[in-house]
Design brief:
131 residues, mainly alpha, Recoverin, domain 1, two-stranded antiparallel ribbon, 6 helices, 56% helix, elongated
């Protein structure tokens, strides 16, 4: 059970954390499925955070169908609360790709809000010639 709680925490961190690797790429690349998928020569290697997130996703996927159901995330309010937003195809399940896309969207919105808050709290610039 402790490993399960840690797994949920890490998956929540995927939703909240802003990895440098994701910000460095100009366009998001297609996410690899949690199941072993052949890596193409053109795809960049996965970051440590992405590898860990895939592993944690698989741990929460109790039945091994490569998607999370509401019942699989029911014990974790933060994940359960974001389920409808992450389930973009409205099939009642959240795939790893949907979790990854939701995390990217969430981070962008969070970063925009932080930038706006920082700009609002920054001292106003004095007009030229003012003392």
């Amino acid at each position: 059970m402790a490993a399960l709680l840690v797994s949920a925490g890490v998956l929540c961190a995927l939703l909240a954390a802003a990895p440098v690797h994701a910000q460095a790429t100009a366009a998001p690349r297609a996410a690899a499925a949690p199941a072993s998928a052949p890596a193409s020569a053109a795809s960049a290697p996965l970051s440590k955070g992405e590898i860990k997130a895939m592993r944690e996703f698989k741990m929460l996927d109790f039945n091994g169908d490569n998607k999370l159901s509401r019942s699989e995330v029911a014990l974790f309010p933060r994940l359960a609360g974001a389920f409808d937003d992450a389930d973009t195809d409205h099939d009642g399940y959240v795939s790893y790709e949907e979790v990854r896309a939701f995390a990217i969207k969430y981070r962008a919105e969070r970063d925009k809000a932080r930038a706006a808050a920082a700009a609002a709290s920054a001292p106003a610039a004095k007009p030229a010639g003012a003392q």
